[in-house]
Amino acid sequence: MKGVPFHRRKETKLVLRYLIAAFLVVIFVFPIYWLFAISFKTPAEIFAFPPVWYPKSIQFNNYAVLFKDGDAKTVGNSLVLASVSTLFAMIFGTIAAYSLVRFKTGGENLAVWIISQRMMPPVAIAFPIFLFYVWLGWVDTYIGLIILYTAFSLPYVIWMMRGYIEEIPLELEESALIDGCNRWEVLWKVVLPMARSGLFATAVFTFVFSWNDFLFALILTRTEVMTYTVQVTHYFGGQSNFWSKIAAMSVLGTIPVFITVATLQRYLVRGISMGAVKG
Amino acid sequence: MTAIAHPDRNFKYWLISPAIFLLLLVGLFPLIFSLVVSFMRVTMLETDTSFAGLANYAQLFHDARLWQSLLHTVLIMVIALPVELLLGLAMAYLFLDRLPGRQLLVSLLVLPTIISPIVAGATWRLLFDNRYGPINQIIGWFAGHPVPALWTVNPGLVYPAIIFCEIWQWTPFMFLILLAALSNVDRSLTEAAEIDGARFWRSFRYVVLPAIFPVMSIAILIRGLDLFRIFDIIWALTAGGPGTMTETISVYTYVQGFRQFETSYTAAIAFLVIALLTVIVTWAIRRMGLAK
């Protein structure tokens, strides 16, 4: 690069960086493109050799089949389980986080214990939970999975909300107390409005984590509340005419996540790093 | 304040008790249950529930398949985690400076991380198909002849297949976190384009790395733990096969509990894993000062 004027050198670097960036985007997005493409292809296009790189025309047959067979119902199940458990986890998690931040309840040990619950390998406790649920009659019920997802989301919600609540100035709460509000009113009228954007972002990520779960749904659902992730794996196996179903069902389960995350871009980093980076 | 001090005193416990109750219900209960059952002889197929003492734990030491599954888990982790970290860091540097359309490109790059791991596995299953998948086709272009590689069946290719999928899904996670961490570092120290190689490495080693280290270690912890319990991607791609070649600790535990119905023995495995992780995680969290 010797002899090239400095500003020219910088431009060359920019072009080079741009090319590498574009290459990376193609690599990382291509698998997702392929999934979407298959979901719109005809069987002849899916099983063409050499592979067809894009569907000739957009047709929704693969999706129509899912709705006709009732398989699409599993997306509805995922929706109910993920949203109801998110609501509960947000309520219980936020008040618990408030208790941890403002009153130092249980000290540092309790906070560490709570976060360590998130670190447990699900499969290790899934089995005892399964036996417990058989005994309670909770296998393949909404209540069983909602309680499970709620409990599994709690450490995340508590951890995230702890960070957001810590940022609220204590003076605001004190002045509300002096104005005659009781503790619940302070929480409802001061803390929650102040933490609103944090609440919203945390709720969305909690929703996505429950929505994406596979292992618990595999173990604890049979037919009634089967989620879309389990439904996808039912198409695996010998018969290759299930390819269109794998793709269409995967897309159905992925679009809601793309939409929610797209609307929440500015919280993305903090959300997936469990608050490690303030965003 | 004495008048309202009394109801106030229990307020903090009222707030935290529902969460604690739920965590105990699905967290501590299974732990105790596992412990009790692991000392018995329970299987789902027989009615014998006699006391077994430490027999199940003794069996752990003689279970070659268990230790192999642990080895498989570690193998995937020691390859995937450094690659994700280094590639993520390199990508973060690439996107750190001004770049037209940066926001859109970053959003596109992050897509793999937010989809369900089971969908990621399913997607790569389709990509890896020996005949109708695009990967063999693309390799064929470079090789100059058709390549019929059986990615999810051939013993020499199953690990690369799993690790590709894993790296594809989670490198963007590292990238996003490290990009945010680097953005918080003084820009004059990170502008690789403006300074020569030696100075760049020196400033990276002594200034940038210590600055991003806390965030980086949390990212490594989160990913390390996720890799330790890897299940979905493997279930979708190989289901532990061929044979038991790609069986990880999570897959093996699942098979013991839900295919072999070895209730007590599964509980012993589960307790071993929980005990192992509790010690490591508690140590790591305290060490990193995460609790503060």
TrEMBL record, chain A:
Residues covered by the ABC transmembrane type-1 domain: 75-264
Subcellular location: Cell membrane
Predominant location: membrane
Matching InterPro entries: BP-dep_ABC_trans_perm, MetI-like, MetI-like_sf
Cross-referenced SUPFAM superfamilies: MetI-like
Topology of this chain in the membrane: Multi-pass membrane protein
Spans through the membrane: 15-36, 79-98, 119-136, 142-159, 199-222, 242-264
Keywords: Cell membrane, Membrane, Sugar transport, Transmembrane, Transmembrane helix, Transport
PROSITE patterns, A to Z: ABC_TM1 (PS50928)
Family label: Belongs to the binding-protein-dependent transport system permease family. MalFG subfamily.
Task of the protein: Part of the ABC transporter complex MalEFGK involved in maltose/maltodextrin import. Probably responsible for the translocation of the substrate across the membrane.
Name this protein carries in UniProt: Maltose/maltodextrin transport system permease protein MalG
Species annotation: Bradyrhizobium iriomotense
Lineage: Bacteria, Pseudomonadati, Pseudomonadota, Alphaproteobacteria, Hyphomicrobiales
From TrEMBL, chain B:
Keywords linked to the UniProt accession: Cell membrane, Membrane, Transmembrane, Transmembrane helix, Transport
SUPFAM superfamilies: MetI-like
CDD domains: TM_PBP2
Compartment annotation: Cell membrane
Cited InterPro entries: MetI-like, MetI-like_sf
Domain ABC transmembrane type-1 stretches: 70-282
Coiled coil: none
Keyword set includes Transmembrane: yes
Ranges that cross the membrane: 12-40, 70-96, 108-127, 157-182, 203-222, 265-285
A Pfam family: BPD_transp_1
Primary location: membrane
Membrane topology: Multi-pass membrane protein
Record carries keyword Disulfide bond: no
Membership in a protein family: Belongs to the binding-protein-dependent transport system permease family.
PANTHER family: BLR7065 PROTEIN, SPERMIDINE_PUTRESCINE TRANSPORT SYSTEM PERMEASE PROTEIN
Name of the protein in its database record: Binding-protein-dependent transport systems inner membrane component
Naturally occurring in which organism (per UniProt): Bradyrhizobium iriomotense
